[in-house]
Amino acid sequence: MKAGRRISLALALSLILFLPVAYADNTITLTSPNAQTDGRFGNSVAVSEGDPIVVVGASLESAGTPAQPEAGHAYVLDTTTGLITALTSPTPQFDGEFGFSVAVSGTTVVVGAPDESAGTPAQPEAGHAYVFDATDGSLITTLTSPTPQASGEFGFSVAVSGTTVVVGAHRESAGTPAQPFAGHAYVFDATDGSLITTFTSPNAQTVGLFGDSVAVGGTTVVVGAPQESAGTPAQTRAGHAYVFDATDGSLITTLTSPNAQTDGVFGLSVAVSEDPIVVVGAPQESAGTPAHTEAGHAYVFDASTGFLTTTLTSPNAQDVGRFGDSVAVGGTTVVVGAPTETVGSLLMFAGHSYSFDASTGFLTTTLTSPNAQASGEFGFSVAVTEIDPIVVVGAPFESGGGSPAGGHAYVFFF
């Protein structure tokens, strides 16, 4: 079954011709081939190894035939050839938000559509996730929660490593007794869609949002629960992150912020490398000297022990900068987005992204959008390869393709 489509040869060729110029500057600027007002191309990004494949979500674009508002797209770019495959949900739905989350490993692409109706009978906003072949856009399998729930938002977060797919359903009821919006995360086999294991928070709480973020590297799975109470004494919405073994579902360790704060939302973003190194964002924590409200932190842990390796803070810590809103790790490179930091003196919410050495915490690079715009939110999403770092950064609220909030994504070669 084909769920993808090739864009026009003319567009593909134009991108190929663009690449040598972009490489000369070590940056590629990506714009949606279907740029739309408030389409938010760049709201999610992912990058694979080898000949890098970049995937970019545009979850609020109209899609399907006839066009369904906010049905969403995801786009696949081969940075070597410039060819793009545009992916659309096999069942485009109004406000389905296909492309809200994306992930890629090798040639396997996973796309979340958390607000699609799913299940039998159909449950509104129960959500789907779809597994595609990146080379031709063909659909491999459709994933649905084993217990679809109205407003469960299965597909809010997705991750893939090899043939292991992880999908978060952060608003499903979970626990015993059932806690509303406590959340689940599920592990599937990418080749056939079979369910391997179901994760529930060891501290399931009402509106804990376990599954709000997920990551997988090898057999290590990380799940964020940013609105769980945590710390001693317990801080409301301080958040947790949990490290599991994907093969048997066992809990390896529970992570808590060393600076647990009320509304700090530790676990809003998570990432894990093959080593494995775990990175957790806490974008609403106060940080900096003097302390800035919602300046944010990101933390690097040893996945096997839960030992804190380093604490990362923005070199431009600002009130409501939200450093840690997005995180990624590849090899020893950690990338952290701060999408609502001010750039320069005038561009409020233009955003930064930063790369650090995971072992030392040293800042290696500060990235700013080549098209920095007020409220563009560069750093809303980030991704990085394991070797010879290639960093991808989304800026979904930038004007792109002549459309307000049409969005951009940027590929940086180091």
Features:
globular; mainly beta; 5-stranded antiparallel sheet; disordered N terminus; Methylamine Dehydrogenase, Chain H; 414 residues; 4-stranded antiparallel sheet; 40% strand
Task: Explain what this protein looks like in three dimensions.
By secondary structure, the protein is mainly beta. The chain has a single domain, classed as Integrin alpha, N-terminal (Methylamine Dehydrogenase, Chain H), CATH 2.130.10. 4% of the residues lie in helices and 40% in strands. It is built from 1 helix and 29 strands. The strands form 7 sheets. It has a 5-stranded antiparallel sheet, with no helix packed on it. A hairpin with a 2-residue loop joins strand 7 and strand 8 (108-113). The chain is globular and about 55 Å long. The two termini are 38 Å apart. 59% of the residues are buried. The model is unreliable at 1-24 (pLDDT under 50).
